[in-house]
UniProtKB/TrEMBL annotation:
It comes from Virgibacillus indicus. Keywords: Signal, Transport. Residues 9-42 have a biased composition (Acidic residues). SUPFAM superfamilies: Periplasmic binding protein-like II (SSF53850). This is Peptide ABC transporter substrate-binding protein. Belongs to the bacterial solute-binding protein 5 family. GO terms for biological process: peptide transport. GO terms for molecular function: peptide transmembrane transporter activity.
């Protein structure tokens, strides 16, 4: 799953030194003319060619930046759509669709000058009206109810509350000054002003007259050939759940891409390596990369290049501490005042006990083969705000787990080897997880075994296909206790509120901790928050609260292992993803 990731920054492809070869000399006496030397091999970028990448899970099918939820869909959108700003390898913001900008003295307004001559895939010009429309759509009444989860980009804009509540039809937060100048206005000095305006833009001429509730089911959201962006490739063909084709946008404003096509194939992880080895696929990248168990095998293939880097995210075991009411699920409402506690998982001692019961280092050693790390803080390790020292380590300690369960009143009252609830009732904890990621699938029974070993009866449910799983997770199926999921984090800022604030759509465990919400709020409040040391202190305090209350146990951060055929050139992954400037990718045949 994805918390919205940034488009990649600009970089130049580097050419290798050409090899020189000579033809064998003619036999003596056959000709007096000297033998001709062969032209040096040309290793400058070549036009043409097709690349094939592999994903282990099919995209859910929502190819619209303001509504998609999964990393698999982002693998399509990263080629098709662009943001006003991009990020470089140091996570600094750089020009993209906006070529420059100015911020006022108190950081409440930013005015951007857009690139001219940019066109959408259908030939229509890109203008400031598209920017205004994109943000207006995310601020619209009914956006959340329609499944939108990106309100973090608009809630700080002037007039959001009035517009979102329907009090006014005018949205004052984003203004088109002219065709190529746009101004964002914020209610208060905004610490994350560059992150907030760096969201992928969608076309006003396609969606402008479409009711917000109908956008998720609109053909331009769902159908290959109708999804329109400004990016270097257009989504042109789809054999659903099997193959997704991206064809080059010859009129791309940064220059015609070298490649003709990029094809995503959906293949099971068990056969992916064989396909990479025999050349049927060219690369394995996000969201899961090359399985750690296959690292040595892939590294031994002469024609395959490997890049390994720390993941910009983590896998977790989440606790459903609360559930929404049926009425709120039906209406799409997220209101913590209405939530119903999940009797057992809402007990903090139980959550802490399960953390001590699980040997996470053993999972890293045995399933990840050491290509990863145990983490306890839910902020990307690459960010300045990450503070491992602020949290409880929850080292493997089954005896401590048993003590905490005893303290919470979950004891084996009838000597059958299994603990009952404090009321003396049978206690069964269910674990739910999706298919697709083999490492996560392999982790599920191991986690169940660890929990069973401290006397808890576990119902390890059959895994569900990701799309159905996320639907159940979102709708708060009321008997869920534990869920497994992975997060690819946004790279724009360490602010964790998009995942962990009580009213965040991605707060799937429905964690409701006022102290947590307050600390996240304080970490964003000006003027103090313009000092990074202040924010770092607040986030350290927040990580301590998270670690103690423990709405989820962070299992590990798996290293990203990217594998690609040596014929692919121009690859320069960013810290947050493999797809970076794909218009500069090219193949040597």
């Amino acid at each position: 799953m994805v918390a919205c990731s940034s488009d990649s920054g600009d970089s130049d492809a580097e050419a290798e030194e050409p090899e020189k070869t000579e033809e064998p000399a003619e036999e003596e006496g056959t000709d007096d003319e000297p033998a001709e030397e062969e032209e040096p091999a040309d290793d400058s970028p070549q036009m043409g060619g097709t690349l094939t990448g592999a994903m282990d899970t099919a995209p859910a099918g929502v190819f619209n930046p303001i509504f998609y939820e999964e990393a698999y869909e982002d693998n399509i959108l990263s080629f098709t759509h662009e943001s006003l700003l991009s990020q470089n390898e140091n996570l600094e913001f750089e020009a993209n669709l906006a070529k420059d900008w100015t911020i006022n003295d108190d950081n409440t307004e930013i005015t951007l000058t857009l690139e001219e001559g940019v066109t959408w895939h259908d030939g229509e010009p890109f203008t400031a009206e598209d920017v205004v429309y994109t943000y207006k759509a995310m601020a619209s009444p009914g956006y959340v109810e329609a499944g939108g989860v990106r309100t973090e980009y608009v809630v700080r804009l002037v007039g959001y509350e009035e517009f979102n509540s329907g009090e006014t039809e005018e949205f004052a937060g984003v203004i088109a000054e002219d065709d190529f100048t746009v101004t964002f206005k914020f209610t208060e000095p905004n610490v994350t002003i560059l992150k907030d305006i760096a969201f992928p833009i969608i076309p006003e001429h396609i969606f402008g007259d479409v009711p917000i509730a109908e956008i998720p089911s609109h053909p331009a959201t769902l159908n290959a050939g109708e999804v329109i962006g400004t990016g270097p490739f257009q989504f042109t063909e789809m054999l659903e759940r099997e193959q997704y084709v991206l064809s080059k946008n010859a009129d791309y404003w940064k220059g015609e891409p070298y490649l003709d096509q990029v094809i995503w194939r959906i293949v099971d992880q068990s056969v992916m390596l064989g396909l990479l080895e025999n050349g049927e696929i060219d690369f394995i990248a996000d969201p899961n990369g090359v399985p750690a168990a296959d690292f040595e095998t892939v590294a031994g293939l002469d024609h395959i290049e490997i890049i390994e880097q720390t993941d910009f995210g983590y896998q977790l075991m989440g606790f459903k501490t609360n559930h929404r009411t049926d009425a709120d699920v039906e209406s799409g409402t997220i209101n913590s005042d209405n939530w119903i506690p999940n009797e057992d998982m809402s007990e903090q001692l139980v959550r802490q006990a399960f953390a001590y019961a699980i040997d996470r280092q053993a999972i890293v050693d045995n399933l990840l083969y050491g290509h990863g790390s145990v983490i306890n803080a839910p902020i990307a390790q690459q960010f300045w705000a990450y503070d491992e020292s602020a949290v409880t380590a929850y080292e493997y300690d089954p005896e401590k787990a048993k003590e905490l369960l005893d303290e919470a009143g979950y004891v084996d009252a009838n000597d059958d080897g299994l603990r009952e609830t404090p009321d003396g009732e049978e206690w069964v904890v269910n674990i739910n997880y999706p298919t697709g990621n083999q490492l996560r699938e392999a982790s599920a029974p191991i986690l169940a075994q660890f929990i069973e070993e401290v006397g808890v009866q576990v119902d390890l449910r059959q895994p569900k296909e990701m799309t159905a799983y996320v639907e159940d997770l979102t709708n708060d199926n009321t008997d869920w206790d534990i869920y497994l999921i992975g997060w690819s984090l946004g790279s724009g800022d360490p602010d964790p509120s998009g995942l962990w604030k009580s009213d965040a759509a991605y707060n799937f465990g429905r964690w409701n901790n006022p102290e947590s919400d307050q600390l996240m709020l304080e970490a964003m409040q000006a003027p103090e928050a313009f000092e990074q040391d202040y924010r770092a202190e607040k986030y350290s305090e927040w990580q301590a609260v998270f670690s103690e209350d423990l709405p989820a146990l962070l299992l590990y951060a798996q290293n990203k292992i990217y594998g690609f055929n040596e014929r692919l050139n121009g690859v320069a992954p960013m810290p947050y993803g493999f797809i970076n400037d794909p218009h500069l990718w090219w193949v040597s045949e």
